[in-house]
Fold:
Amino acid sequence: FIQSELQNQVLNIYFNRPDKYNAFVREMALAFQAELDRASEDDNIRAVYVSGRGRAFCAGQDLAEAVDPNGPELSRIVSEHYNPIILKIRRCPKPIVMAVNGVAAGAGANIALAGDVVVAARSASFIQAFSKIGLIPDSGGTYTLPRLIGFGKASALMMLGDRVSADEASALGMIYKVLDDEVFEKESLAIAQTLSQMPTKALALTKKALNKSFSNDLVTQLHLEDELQTQAGNSLDYQEGVKAFLEKRKPEFTGK
Ligand code: LHQ
Structure:
C-alpha cells in the first residue's frame, strides 16, 4: 500500500491504494511509519516527498476497517497509526514535501498539513471530513490548522466539513502554493530535489525551532535560536556556504 524509491537523495513515498482513494488501513499506516523512520535515520536521504497514486492524495482512515469488529479499535487507530505518523513527520530531521495530487480528507488532510512544504495540484482539495461522520479532527488537525489559518476559519472548516479547493487553501494560507495539474508532478518533485541539495542540518534545526514557535515565549525562542544557530555554525555546510559566497560561486552542500 506504500511505494517508495530513492531518487538521488530524495525518498519519494507514494500512498498506493488508488481504488480506495488511498484510505489508510493498519498495514498501510505502519508501512508509512517505517518509511518515515528510514527517512529520519538514513544520512543519504536529505529530503522526503509524499504523494498519492491515482486520483486522490489520501481519504483518511479506511472507514470499513474502522467499523470492522475484527479490526483495530478506534483508540488504537489514533494512538498507534496517526499520532506516531504526525510525530514522525514533525520530528524527521529532513524536510518533507507533501505533494497533494488530489483530494485529501480526514486524517489524509491533516497528514498533508503536517508537512514542511505543502503544495497542491490545482484540481486537488482538502476536507476536514470528520464532523460528517460524528468524529473530531485528529492527526494533529486541531493543533495544526488553527496555527496555519487562524482559529475562526479552522473552527468553521472543522465543524462544517466544507471542501476547500487548492486555490482557496492557498489563499487561506493553509498550503504553500498551487501548481497547475500538467506540471504538478514535475515541479513538486523539483522542490524536493532542491531541498535535498540544501544544507540539511540547518533545515533540520530550522524545523526544530519552528516546532516550538507557537508555544515558546519570545525570550525562550530567542535562546533556542541561539542554541540551534551555534549548532548550525558548526556544520561543514555553513563553512561551504560562506566560502562559496565570498568566492562568488554556487555552493556544494553535503548535508554535513
Ligand atoms: C473510501 C474512503 C474511506 C474507505 C473513499 N474509507 N473507502 C480516526 C479514528 C478512527 C476511525 C476513523 O478515522 C479516523 C481518522 C479519519 O481519517 S476519519 C475521516 C475518514 N475519511 C472520511 O470520512 C472521508 C470519506 N470519503 C469521502 O468523503 C469521499 O470519498 C471523498 C470526499 C474523499 C471523495 O469523494 P468522491 O470523489 O465522490 O469519491 P468516492 O466517494 O466515490 O470515493 C472513491 C472510492 O474510494 C470509493 O470506493 P468504491 O469502491 O465505491 O468506488 C469510496 O468508497 C472509496 N473511499 N474514502 N475513507
Residues 219 and 225 are 10 Å apart (CA to CA). The pocket of LHQ is lined by residues 20-21, 23, 59-64, 66, 74, 77-78, 103, 105-107, 127, 129-130, 133, 135, 138 (CB under 6 Å).
